[in-house]
Amino acid sequence: MASNCVASRTQPVSNITLTRRQNALALFQDFAEKALASGTSPKGLEQSFAATLQVSPSMWSQIKSSRPIGDKLARQIESARGKPAGWLDDVRKEPVPSAAETAFLELALSAWRSTHSAGRKALREHLKTIVANAV
What we know:
It contains 6 helices and 2 strands; from the N terminus they run ββαααααα. The protein is mostly helical and about 140 residues long. The longest helix has 23 residues, at about 15-35.
């Protein structure tokens, strides 16, 4: 029997929880890219985004990392960002990398190709550490 849950470190997390979190993070990425492109300082972007959602910065921090987004909060986020009801619930394909992501990927590939096996191992371990600390 197939499960509707994906295992996490502490307990099963439903697919809707993961989908809503990924979509909320995509909304933040879009917000941040537009703000940075318009010359806004990166400092305070998280707080500004939280304000647009009408939630506290602490609540946004929890949403990014572990707090499930319930139906009421999902509809609030969608409304605040001009999305139709149910938008956060839809699974989306991975977006095409932004210009900043493409530049990073090119830099990472260049670093990978320009070093020896010990350097590659160090690079891989450093990235794993960053990802593990971000969760």
